[in-house]
Inverse folding.
């Protein structure tokens, strides 16, 4: 079946200046290949895995949320879930949010290398491709799960150690973009399932970010969805399967007013709001979903 026409890249950007060291330890859970293996795509032998943690959280449709990836986190927003940067925020921020009754999602850029991150040197030159449109960021060759798996395992492990409840893995639809690598839908499925396995192996939930073309294939692997601009691009119905499965869809628009999308997304059961593209503290949630 032909893939849908790719939508423009519209992934959230993390600002530079994060300062916590990511130790490259941990391991890559086994990915589930969806196509015949080739040397570039086949993972190497896994390292010794961390002990799995039983159970992980699945947010229900309609769960209220705040998404803040820039500036000092405003911990006073009365919502059920926060999605914040996993490197720039420490265990103290997570603990404060937990004390207020919030669940906390850890933002991790899983599909692009960022030259401002503490673990930037862990990414070999041959796995870094074209710019993803943000300064200092390059698409990753997700076929190289042997290289990227341990790096992502270390990042997810840091989230777990800080007490986060879940992972937001960004840039996980590179097969639809001009990355500099001949990535296929099968490559993306294998990589995204690897990420899901890593998170679940640590007792963390994980959300599917913007990869609408593979919702049907990945619904069983992911615990919620995070989407940018589905209303602007006329694609929100493609996420309805998450709500039908009892899983939240955390959705934002940047260019539309709430009056232009809330009726549609509220009817679909989404947790929707308008945000500034910088993803700072201000938020404009849909009525009835504050």
């Amino acid at each position: 079946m032909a893939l849908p026409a790719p939508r423009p890249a519209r992934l959230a950007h993390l600002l530079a200046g994060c300062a916590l060291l990511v130790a490259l330890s941990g391991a890559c859970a086994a990915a589930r290949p969806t196509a015949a293996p080739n040397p570039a795509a086949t993972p190497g032998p896994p390292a010794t895995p961390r002990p799995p943690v039983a159970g992980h959280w699945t947010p229900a449709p309609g769960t209220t949320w705040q998404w803040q990836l820039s500036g000092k986190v405003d911990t006073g927003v009365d919502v059920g879930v926060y999605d914040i940067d996993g490197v720039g925020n420490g265990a103290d921020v997570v603990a404060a949010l937990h004390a207020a009754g919030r669940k906390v999602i850890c933002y991790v850029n899983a599909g692009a290398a960022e030259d401002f991150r503490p673990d930037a040197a862990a990414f070999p030159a041959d796995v870094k491709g074209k710019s993803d449109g943000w300064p200092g960021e390059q698409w990753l060759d997700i076929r190289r799960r042997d290289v990227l798996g341990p790096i992502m395992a270390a990042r997810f492990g840091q989230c777990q150690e800080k007490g986060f409840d879940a992972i937001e893995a960004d840039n996980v639809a590179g097969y639809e973009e001009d990355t500099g690598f001949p990535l296929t839908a099968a490559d993306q499925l294998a990589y995204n399932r690897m990420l899901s396995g890593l998170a679940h192996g640590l007792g963390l939930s994980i959300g599917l970010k913007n990869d609408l073309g593979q919702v049907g294939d990945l619904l069983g692997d992911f615990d919620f969805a995070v989407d940018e601009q589905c209303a602007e691009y006329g694609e929100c119905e493609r996420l309805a399967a998450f709500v039908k499965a009892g899983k939240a869809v955390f959705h934002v628009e940047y260019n539309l007013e709430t009056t232009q999308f809330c009726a549609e997304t509220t009817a679909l059961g989404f947790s929707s709001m308008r945000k500034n593209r910088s993803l700072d503290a201000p938020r404009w949630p849909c009525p009835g979903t504050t």
Notes: The CA atoms of residues 68 and 281 lie 6 Å apart. The chain is about 20% helix and 20% strand. The first helix runs from residue 91 to 99. Residues 1-53 have pLDDT under 50 and may be disordered.
